[in-house]
Design a protein that fits this description.
seven-stranded antiparallel sheet, 17 strands, 42% strand
């Protein structure tokens, strides 16, 4: 079902306006240490076998190199399908009895900067309005995604968003490396896009008409970080403008119903 918002018409009356469902897949993520705000990021919803997950970059939940150790996150959710100015913040604890609640993993190339945390639907307001990617939105035929293909990265760069309607923004991107090939042996591909802090965890999507779904987008990746060169002359050379997007099919591993929910023990301060 599509959602509607009020649009002020030329006759001075409010008119319902259809909202692109893609904007309801993505939530603003704020990390906390107790009541102390730490960082802002992006995340999106993924549903599999009736289980609901919030997906983001793993470094949003835990990043020892930067001494980032939050113990909870908050996500902002719409609570009215017509009046998008109405929202509610939902708090999700990252640890329970000293055990991490998110799922993360690695492959032959090392740690993968993607994490998924299951959301108890009982925590959500009864009128919550979200849209979810599913396994059907993942790209199985890799040779159909060519270099230069246009993409969108949907998130909250530097926390910027429509603060009235609580909606993310979309940035244009293109595929900048051979899709399906692990760049430098790691599980990501490159995008060429202007991104900022706060975009970590954003979905990287490609428009595609999918039968039987109201969400006509392929989920190709999870935006992680920007690339730059340590040898770049800051006075002469511009930033590369390239980014790492981890292949989204890794979500099939993270959300596998047969996978133990919490297979690692990690203290909040470790």
């Amino acid at each position: 079902m599509n959602s509607f918002a009020h649009q002020h018409g030329a006759d001075g009356k409010d008119k319902p306006q259809m909202i692109e469902p893609l904007f309801l897949t993505t939530a603003r993520v704020t990390t906390f240490d107790g009541d102390r705000v730490l960082t802002g990021a992006s995340g999106f919803f993924f549903e599999r076998s009736r289980h609901l997950f919030l997906v983001s970059s793993r470094h949003v939940f835990h990043d020892p190199p930067t001494n980032h150790h939050p113990n909870r996150i908050e996500i902002e959710l719409h609570t009215d399908s017509v009046d998008l100015t109405r929202s509610s913040a939902v708090s999700i604890w990252l640890f329970k009895n000293g055990r991490m609640q998110w799922r993360q993993g690695f492959d032959s190339g090392g740690d993968i900067d993607v994490a998924a945390i299951e959301i108890d639907r009982a925590l959500l307001p009864a009128t919550t309005e979200i849209r979810c990617f599913t396994p059907a939105h993942l790209q199985s035929e890799l040779d159909r995604v060519e270099v230069g293909r246009e993409l969108l990265v949907v998130g909250f760069p530097l926390g910027f968003h429509d603060t009235l309607h609580h909606l993310p923004v979309a940035r244009h991107a293109v595929i900048a490396s051979a899709f399906g090939i692990r760049f430098q042996g790691q599980g990501f591909f490159l995008t060429d896009s202007r991104t900022h802090r706060g975009t970590s965890g954003a979905p990287v999507v490609m428009h595609d008409l999918l039968p039987g779904t109201e969400l006509p987008w392929r989920l190709l990746g999870v935006h992680s970080s920007r690339f730059d060169m340590s040898t770049r002359d800051l006075n002469i050379d511009e930033s590369l403008g390239l980014n790492a997007a981890w292949y989204a099919d890794f979500l099939l591993t993270l959300t596998d119903p047969a996978r133990p929910q919490h297979d690692e023990q990690l203290s909040p301060a470790s």
